[in-house]
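Usage

Read records sequentially. Each one opens with the input sequence:
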Amino acid sequence: MPLSGDLYFLKDCFYPCFQLTAYACYVNIGASMEYVIRPVVPAEYPAVLEVYRQCEDFLALGPVAKASLEMVLRDIREARVEKGIFCGIWSGDKMIGVVSYVPSQFEFRTVDVFILLLMIAAPYRSKGAGSDILAMVEKELCHKKRIRSIKLGCQVNNPRAIKFWESKGYYVDRGPDLLPDKTTVYRLRKDITLPPAGK
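and closes with the structure output:
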């Protein structure tokens, strides 16, 4: 068993984690809690909807405050259109959140990646889950490619989220920008220090 906070891989798992490796990623958090991030399959859409329902406080900041299966399917479609990956975040056999991201070629730039969505169900917030999961996602996004930056959009009326992202090294790069769905976001960015060539 790995030490607390270590990232390790389970070979030949049925679902690949992040689609960038042939392994599922686990991170051991504390004595007994593990998170697994993997692409969702249609049979898991009800679990995704339940996560969205537990995040209606966040959804209320946007144009549609009530979670629906149509909202879930729209976000999954958006990830596909952007050539992204929509994943469930699992603790044991319970989905506790979702993350959706574009692992490369965001806006045709090979050095930029984009986090489309990160939502953690209300009962799991303020316990370190978001920080640990973000660290997993960042590590996976940056470990094989020469990534220059990770980008995302954060609603201007969500100061708690802005504070979270800033505490993780992200800064407001542009905005506020009005999106087609009528939400207004800041474009946040985290610059990644690249190792010297050949390392």
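Summary fields computed downstream for this record:
- The first helix runs from residue 45 to 53.
- The radius of gyration is 16 Å.
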